[in-house]
Amino acid sequence: MYSSKLCIKPKSDQLYYQRVTTESAQWSYLNFEARLMKKDEVWEHETGDCEMVIVLLSGNFEVHSNHGTFSTINGRKDVFSGIAHTLYFPVNSSFSLRATSNLLDIAYGWCEADDFFPAKFVRPEETPVVLFGGDNASRQFNDLVPPGFGCSRIVAREVYTPSGNWSSFPAHKHDERRVSEDGVLLEPIQEETYFYKFQKQEAYALQQVYTKDGSLDEIVRPRHNDVVLIPKGYHPVVAEHGFHCYYLNFLAGTDQSLANSTDPDHDWIYNSWTTIDPRLPLVTAEMNKSERI
C-alpha cells in the first residue's frame, strides 16, 4: 500500500513544516521532516532504534549530543548559496540542537537501523560533488550520505537542476530487489522523498511517477517546500524554464545503495550526451565562505 497523494504541501501551524512518516506514506522504511527555528530555539530528540541524517538548508546551528558537540559557522543563506553541512546520528543517540542564526532551516530523514555506526559530521568542503548527465539533462549531485558512508540503510543527496533541464533522467526505479549471479546488487527496494526548493516562490518543477504495468502513472507539479513521495516506479523531473531547481533526496530500504534500473525505453540516452551544461556547478563550498549568516 502507498499514499495516493504523492505531492505533500507544507504546513505553517506546526513545529515542522513538512512531515512524512511510514504511517502517513503507508510504506515501510523512510521518515522525513523539515523545520524552521528562530535564534536560540532548541530542538531535543532521541533517535531510539533509528538512524538519522540532519541536513542544513540555511542558517547555522550548534548540537550537543552523547557523541560530542558539532557546530557550523559557514552555513548558507539558502540552498542556492553553498553546500549543506550533514550530521549523521546512529541508533540510541540523544541530542540538543540550537539555532545560532536568526533563522535556521533544517531537514532530516530517519529510518530503523540494523547496526550501530559512529556519528559523523560532514562539512561542505568534504562533501563529494558530481556533475552528472549531459546536454539538457545535466545536473549537480552533492552526495551528502552516499553508498559506503558508514550507516545502516539511509542515503541522502542534494540535486541541482539548471533551468529547463531534465533530472532523475533517464527515468529509473528502485522497487524490486535484484542481485546478479555473482552477487552484485542490481536494484534495491527503496522508498524515496523529493524535497523541493526554488529561487522564487512562483517556480515549479514537473515530476512523473509511473510503472510499466500502469498501476501508477501520475504527473505532479511540486513547488517551493513541497515533498513528492516515490513509493515505486520510475520518477523523472524537469525544471521549469527560468528557475533553477533544488531537491533533497532521502532514500531508505533494503540496502544502503544507489543502484537502480533504467527504463529500458530510455537506456540509449546515456550514450547520446555530448556536453555538460556550462552553468554547472550551480553551488560550491567556496560560496559557504563568502557570506556569514
3D architecture notes:
- The chain has two helices and 24 strands.
- With 293 residues, the chain is mainly beta.
- It has one domain: Jelly Rolls (Sandwich).
- Strands 1, 12, 13, 14, 17, 18, 21 and 23 form an eight-stranded antiparallel beta sheet that branches.
- A hairpin with a 6-residue loop joins strand 19 and strand 20.
- It is globular and about 50 Å long.
- The termini are far apart.
Low-confidence stretches: none
CATH superfamily: Jelly Rolls
Helix content: under 10%
The first-level CATH class name? Mainly Beta
Instruction: Tell me which CATH architecture applies here.
Output: Sandwich
Q: What are the salient characteristics of this protein?
A:
293 residues; mainly beta; 2 helices; 24 strands; 44% strand; globular
Give a quick rundown of the structure.
By secondary structure, the chain is mainly β. It contains 2 helices and 24 strands.
Show the helix and strand layout:
Layout: E1 7-8, E2 18-20, H1 22-25, E3 31-38, E4 42-46, E5 50-58, E6 61-65, E7 68-71, E8 86-89, E9 94-99, E10 103-112, E11 120-122, E12 129-132, E13 139-145, E14 155-161, E15 166-167, E16 172-173, E17 175-179, E18 185-198, E19 205-210, E20 217-220, E21 227-230, E22 237-239, E23 245-253, E24 261-262, H2 286-290
Antiparallel strand pairs: 1-21, 2-3, 3-10, 4-9, 5-8, 5-10, 6-7, 6-9, 8-11, 12-13, 13-14, 14-23, 15-22, 16-24, 17-18, 18-21, 18-23, 19-20, 19-22
